[in-house]
Amino acid sequence: MRWRSASVTAFSCTLLLAGCGGGNVDQTKPRPRPPRIPADVAQRLAAEADLIASAKPGSCTARAAAARLQAEALEAIQSHRVPPRYQEP
Fold it and tell me: In whole angstroms, what is the distance from residue 32 CA to residue 84 CA?
């Protein structure tokens, strides 16, 4: 079961950190807008992540929410609703 928690955590961190960056940016060229995750997908995944965070560690509630989050994330990726930029290689 720990691999599921690690998988969920890794996926969440990837989503959060994917937009971070820095360095010199040429101000004369407009920056392209990053791809977006549809709001309904992002809201569903965030709600499941919040449920996991609020549940007692190792509880049935946490495990069930983690399984739902993993399944929903995979379904969103397979249906091409999560842009490739936010997916692991």
Answer: 16
